[in-house]
Model the fold of this input.
Amino acid sequence: MVKVPSISMNNGLSMPGFGLGTYESFGEAGRATKHAIDVGYRHFDTARLYENEEEVGKAIQEKIKEGVVKREEIFIVTKLWNTDHEPEKVEKACRKSCEKLGLGYIDLYLMHWPVAFTERTPYEYWPLNDDGQYDNADVDFLDTWKSMEKLVDLGLVKSIGISNFNSQQIKRLLANCRIKPVNNQIECSPQINQKKLIKFCQDREIIVTAYCPLGRPIPADKKPGFLYDAKLGDIAKKYNKTIPQIVFRFLLDIGAVPIPKSVTPSRIEENISVFDFKLTSDEIKYIDTFNTGERVLEFTEARNDKNFPFGIEF
Ligand SMILES: NC(=O)c1ccc[n+]([C@@H]2O[C@H](COP(=O)([O-])OP(=O)(O)OC[C@H]3O[C@@H](n4cnc5c(N)ncnc54)[C@H](OP(=O)(O)O)[C@@H]3O)[C@@H](O)[C@H]2O)c1
Done:
């Protein structure tokens, strides 16, 4: 069983420095969560969007009942979806997530994106207009945040954070909040290593979580390239590790918390087994050469929105 180090957050609480992603786990998230708990994972990342909060929550509840973990050892992260940004909708959305998870409180509740969508009937997660752009709603994320702060007061969530926010948006939020975000969850892998945004967040005591840490591999296309790189293969051999393990170690070494998704038991185990070695600065420099800035999630259908986060350098 792997022991994952905890990281202190700016509110005095702490989060486990490695987690399990659960996006697109297609009915396998529960089994994956249980296996992950058995091998040492304590941090689980879900969202309203993933439609698996019930499954992940049930798996955790069962492990608590079995006596394998205590509730307070688990760190559950879920997210407010873009159609729920109106201040009066936030508490209801959060209560729904709490109910689905069945774990009492939520450890960390994130605003999934800084962009708000209009809610349609019938419901659509990704409402598109005829021009191919999202049907955005005119809600200021500062107003959404105020409602998220109330969730902490109500005891529904222990901590609040953001996701996919750029440095300017973070600055604006920090200048106008009562409770600081503890975390910014962003895409981060060797191909978009986010060193500038990580430094910006670290300077403001915001922990960065790395989503798509493997660049969401497409094995048939041998993508992303870093997973198939011969020199990275040699570095992996040197430590008796795999390339994905080298990638997670790299992300930890540059100050991010990786949350790789896997439903494969051997990979769930492989991915977390990265706390018994460290890369040299030359090896980190080599992995830096893959930093093209290419994103898996470009979010281009929101590029006309005033809160589109990817229009500036970081
Ligand atoms: N905040 C946001 O906007 C946002 C956006 C995207 C993702 N996320 C979160 O971040 C998590 C991770 O991102 P992601 O799922 O998009 O991408 P990812 O973790 O980079 O890639 C997941 C894929 O990698 C495979 N994989 C996992 N470990 C592997 C290994 N050791 N060797 C080879 N392949 C491996 C998985 O396959 P198997 O499952 O078949 O093993 C799965 O197909 C998500 O699940 C979600 O929780 C958040």
